Amino acid sequence: MATITTSTSIIGIQCRFKTPSHHFFNSCTNFSLSISSPYLTHHKLSSHTMPPNLFRANPSSAIDAPSEELEASSRGGIGANDLLIVGPGVLGRLVAERWREDYPGCQIFGQTMTTDHHDELIKMGISPSSRETKFTSKFPYVIYCAPPSRTEDYPGDVRDAALKWSGEGSFLFTSSSAPYDCSDNGSVDEDGPIVPIGRSPRTDILLKAEKVVLEFGGCVVRLAGLYISLDTDQRSREDRGAHTYWLHKGTMDARPDHIVNLIHYEDAASLSATILKKRLRSRIFLGCDNHPVSRQEVMDLVNKSGKFENKFEGFTGTSGPLGKKLNNSKTRAELGWEPKYPSFAQFLGVSD
């Protein structure tokens, strides 16, 4: 028999590991922190972003231990404004920035599928954890930003996140506007008709996840197409959005008159933070810039901006479903929210 007992301070959560000793060193490699990613290099580590002894691992096991057990809690317990972000990607990280501006003393935790980006999260003052982490306390605020593409049971994962919510502040699920049942370029608002279950596997997954959230008393924000320019290092920017995909392709076999709806990532984050702070229950909101445009108009604006090396040649499709024109005036009026970027054209700095 072999037993290993070790205590080490790593990042913002207290953990206890129980694992066979011959697996211990392999397990520890998951927590190696090489703060070397080019993403968000302007964020510096400090005593604020990485408090001492905030994450404590105590591996103690025997050779016949059946599995690894992870128990976690924050150093001083969970505070009234602490936030758990499930899926802290581009949107989740922007939500974290907004949340810390409003609540500078709060703790922010980020649950990820892998440990690949944990070093980046630490730089931002987000304490990373994995799906296997078992928190000893629940969170007053939880936002679910993870996409359905990396899991076989999306509604189940959303339920697991809801179970980490204390029921006090808010639980918010970031969904898509895809469930709105309109394919003739017609107008749709928050109360528009929904695609029936069984018609589309994609919308089925989203609607089942939304149902879980609403049953728990959480809120849903259905977001239009997201886009952004990201600083990837000191010298360049990376654009994300449908326009970058179309630009890369050069031509697309799709209808040019199909209407699309957009919202900047920063606006999606500010809207999400606003909903969280309202502490509402079982509500559905809509996130868009209220400036629907056709695919052709999007790429005309891209070409006109002169900000991209490539030129888009055109859409060649002549058939297929059209889109919808989203309007979230009700969401704006209730929440008192307005976007920073009221249109894709203004984001690019060109007239539409």
UniProtKB/TrEMBL annotation:
Entry superkingdom: Eukaryota
Keywords: Isomerase, NAD
SUPFAM superfamilies xrefs: NAD(P)-binding Rossmann-fold domains
Molecular-function annotations in GO: isomerase activity
PANTHER family registered for this protein in UniProt: EPIMERASE-RELATED
Family in the record: Belongs to the NAD(P)-dependent epimerase/dehydratase family.
Name the record gives this protein: NAD(P)-binding Rossmann-fold superfamily protein
